[in-house]
Structure to design on (239 residues):
């Protein structure tokens, strides 16, 4: 059954017009009046609904009953990463969403190939947010990950403050790093920092450790910048 994300609070018996992105999705699926679909608003659970009217630029639906399903990870995971270049960031956002990430913080680091600022950065983040929304619709998630604004690593680290008692911070590294399998499972929240192509510099790793990040190793092989964060999500999501 088609699933569509609606960025507004839903309630039973609502009759609403779908937003533009959802209209295009409904048209691609060739939905017709009377067809059933599932809606979710990111506030937990999902809603059954039916199509009332289909037009060239407007789709109206009737919201029916709420189902309190929960398909999110029990652990709130944020990925902070040096953005990989080309199309790799698109794929990373999509797969991280499927694996249950709660938020993604795109970073520019010393060795970053991809450099974004101003309107170009805002447009790229909106593009990644759309990818996260589409992936959430497809994989059955009831919440859409947040894509945070692009910033530099030196700007971001001081903004973190102290880690809470229910959280942990991991830095993906090789030198003086503890194997991930020996790390205690974080109680509620985890912040994972991963570098761009070429990794973080020694100075960046030192700054991260001063900000409370523990160096964690994923093993002997060198993983790509768009693979390492996904490996962490898969390990924690399936563990």
């Amino acid at each position: 059954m088609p699933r569509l994300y609606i960025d507004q609070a839903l309630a039973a018996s609502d009759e609403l017009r779908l937003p533009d992105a959802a209209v295009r999705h409904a048209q691609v699926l060739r939905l017709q009046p009377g067809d059933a679909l599932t809606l979710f608003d990111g506030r937990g659970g999902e809603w059954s609904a039916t199509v009332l009217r289909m037009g060239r630029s407007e789709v109206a639906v009737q919201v029916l009953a709420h189902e309190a399903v929960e398909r999110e990870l029990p652990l709130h995971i944020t990925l902070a990463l040096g953005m990989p270049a080309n199309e790799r960031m698109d794929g990373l956002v999509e797969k991280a969403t499927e694996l249950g990430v709660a938020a993604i913080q795109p970073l520019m680091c010393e060795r970053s190939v991809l450099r974004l600022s101003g309107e170009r950065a805002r447009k790229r983040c909106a593009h990644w947010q759309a990818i996260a929304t589409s992936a959430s619709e497809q994989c059955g998630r009831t919440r859409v990950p947040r894509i945070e604004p692009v910033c530099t690593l030196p700007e971001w680290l001081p903004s973190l403050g102290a880690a809470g008692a229910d959280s942990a911070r991991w830095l993906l590294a090789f030198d003086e790093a503890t194997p991930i399998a020996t790390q205690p499972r974080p109680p509620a929240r985890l912040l994972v920092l991963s570098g761009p192509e070429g990794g973080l510099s020694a100075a960046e790793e030192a700054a991260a450790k001063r900000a409370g990040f523990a160096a964690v190793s994923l093993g002997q092989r060198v993983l790509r910048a768009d693979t390492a964060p996904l490996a962490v999500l898969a390990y924690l999501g399936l563990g």
In short: The chain has two domains: 3-67, 76-238. Residues 76-238 form a domain with the Alpha/beta knot fold (CATH 3.40.1280.10).
